[in-house]
Amino acid sequence: MKQPGRILLGLYCLLVAVWLVAPTIVVVPMSFNDKKSLAFPPSGFSWQWYQNFFTNPEWSASLVGSLKVAVVTALFATVIGTLAAFGLDRMKSRVSGVLRALLITPMVVPGVVLAVGIYAVYLDTRLVGTMTGFVLAHTMLAVPFVIIAVSASLEVFDKRLETAAASLGATRLTAFRTVTLPLIAPGILSGLLFAFVTSFDEIIVALFITSPYLKTLPVQIFSSITRDADPTVAAVGTLLFIVTSLVIGAGLLIGSRQGKR
Amino acid sequence: MATRAIDSRDTVPAVTADGRRRWFRGQAFWLVAPALLLLVICLGLPLAIVTLRSFSEPQWGWQNYAWFFGTPVNLTVLQRTFAISAWVTLVCLIAGYPYAYVMTAVGPRMRLVLILCVLVPFWVSGVVRTLAWVILLQDSGVINSAIRAVGLSPVKLIRTQTGVVIGMAQVLLPFMILPLYSVMKTIDLRLMQAARSLGASPARAFAQVYLPLSLPGVYAGAIIVFILALGFYITPALLGGPRSTMLSTLIQNQVLSLLNWGRGGAMGVVLLIATFVLLALAAPLSRQPHKTGSRR
C-alpha cells in the first residue's frame, strides 16, 4: 500500500481505539469532582466520593454481596464447566457439536427474556433475593465461558500423554492429576476468571431478582445512576478499572513467564 | 477435532477397545450432565414459563400476541429495535473491519496494544461504561463542550437514537473485531501481492481476493453483534429517551411495572424467536469452507 493510504488507515485505527478506550478513562476525572454533579469538566478536587463508597453502608453492602456471589459462582461454574468440557472432548464429534451449541445458548438468549423467566421461577420457589438464587442464575450464565476456555486448552492437549502415563503404570486418576491437570491449568484458570467477571458484572437478571437484603454492585450502580448524578459511581468505576488492570497485568506477566519456560 | 478423536481411540489397546470405548462414552455423558441439568433448571424452565404465560394469562389463547401485533406502538418499537440493531451492526463493521485488518498487518508489539484497546472495555463493568457515555453525551458533556469550544452549536445526543447507537456500538465493537481478526489472521497476505502482480488494482485485489476470504468473519461478527443488540437493555434504558425505547425495556415495563406477565411474555417470545431464527439463518454463512478438515 502507498504511504498516504497507510497513514490514513493508521489515523482511522487510532480514532477507533480512542472510541474504545475513552469511556473507560473519562470516569477517572469525574470521580474526583468536588460537587455532586456529573457535568464535565469537574470543577474541583476531592476524595469524598471514594470516602462515600467505603463508608456508606449501601455501597459497601452491595460490594460485599457482589463479591460473595461472584466467588461462589466462579467456583461452581469452574467445576461444572470443566467437567462438561472434558465430557464434550471425549464424545463423538456429532453429539458433542450439538451439546456444545446447546450449552452455550445462555450467551445469546436476550437478557430481559431470561430475567423475566427466572424471576417467575424464583417467585414460585421463594428464591428472589437469596444467595442461592443469585448463584444458580449466575452459574448458568458463567458456565459457557468456562467451557469455551477449558475446551480451547483441551484442543491443544496431546492425549497420547495420558496413554503414556497409563502405560507407565499410572491409574487414570493419577494420570489426570499429575499429567492432564497441570497442562490444562491455564485454561481452567482463565475460565475461573471469566466466570468471576461474568457474575460480578451481571446486571439484568440481578435487577429482577434483587431484594433489599441482597443487592449486587451493578444493581447499586444502576439505581444510583437512575436516581441522581452521584459521582460515587465514577469512583467505583475508577476503582474497578484499577483492580482489573492489576489482575490482568499480573495474569499477563505470569503467562509470559510460563511461556518462556 | 475429528482426526484427534480417531487418534485417541486407536491408542486404546485393541483387546479392551470395545468395552472401554462404550464405558468412555457413557462416562462422558455423566461429565456433561451437571451442566445440562443447570441449563434445564435455569434456562429451560424459565423460558418455558415465559412461553406458557404468554398463552395462559389472563386466559388461554392468542390474545397477547393479537394485542402485540395489533398495537401500533408495539410495532413501532419492534421495528425500531431491528433498525437500531442494524445501525449498530453497520457502525461496528465500518469501525471494526479496518481495525481488525491493521491488527493482522502490524508487528507483535503494536498488535498487543491494539488487542488491549479492544479488551479494555471488558475490564470495566458494563453499567459504569454506560455511565461514561452519559457523561460524554449529555448536554453539558464532553462532546458538546468540545463542540461549543470550536464555536458550533451543541447537538442533542443524550435521549436520542443517535446517542443509543453510539453507546451500544462501542459496547459491542469487541464482538465484531475479535471474530474478524481471527478470520483475517488466517488470510495469506501474499495472495494480495499475487493479485497485484497479475495486474489488479489495489481496490480490485481487495474486492476480489481479500474481501471474499474475510466474509466468514464479517458474517460471524455481524450476527453476534446484531443478536446481542436486539436484546440490549441497560444502554438504551440509560442513554435513550421515550423515542428510542427498545423491546427489552417494553418487556421489563410490562412485567415489573404493570405486572402483566402475559403481554410481557408474548413480547419475550417474539424477541426470542427473532433471535433464534436469525441465528439459524446465519450459522451456515459464518462457517469457513476452506477450513473444514482440521483447525489450522
Automatic annotation (TrEMBL), chain A:
GO biological process: transmembrane transport
InterPro entries assigned: MetI-like, MetI-like_sf
Subcellular location as annotated: Cell inner membrane; Cell membrane
One GO cellular component, as annotated: plasma membrane
Keyword Transmembrane helix listed: yes
CDD domains per UniProt: TM_PBP2 (cd06261)
Pfam families: BPD_transp_1 (PF00528)
Membrane topology: Multi-pass membrane protein
Keywords: Cell inner membrane, Cell membrane, Membrane, Transmembrane, Transmembrane helix, Transport
Domain spans labelled ABC transmembrane type-1: 63-252
Listed Gene3D superfamilies: MetI-like
Name of protein: Putative spermidine/putrescine transport system permease protein
Major subcellular location class: membrane
UniProt family annotation: Belongs to the binding-protein-dependent transport system permease family.
Stretches that traverse the bilayer: none
UniProtKB/TrEMBL annotation, chain B:
Any one Gene Ontology cellular component term annotated for this protein: plasma membrane
Membrane topology: Multi-pass membrane protein
GO biological process, one term: transmembrane transport
InterPro entries associated with the record: MetI-like, MetI-like_sf
Keyword terms: Cell membrane, Membrane, Transmembrane, Transmembrane helix, Transport
Predominant location: membrane
Start and end residues of each ABC transmembrane type-1 domain: 78-282
Cell compartments where the protein resides: Cell membrane
Top-level taxon: Bacteria
One Pfam family named in its UniProt record: BPD_transp_1
Transmembrane segment boundaries: 28-52, 82-100, 112-136, 164-184, 205-234, 266-286
Keyword match Transport: yes
Alphabetical list of PANTHER family matching this protein: ABC TRANSPORTER PERMEASE PROTEIN (PTHR42929:SF5), INNER MEMBRANE ABC TRANSPORTER PERMEASE PROTEIN YDCU-RELATED-RELATED (PTHR42929)
Entry's family note: Belongs to the binding-protein-dependent transport system permease family. CysTW subfamily.
Protein name: Putative spermidine/putrescine transport system permease protein
Source species of the chain: Mesorhizobium muleiense
Taxonomy of the source species: Bacteria, Pseudomonadati, Pseudomonadota, Alphaproteobacteria, Hyphomicrobiales
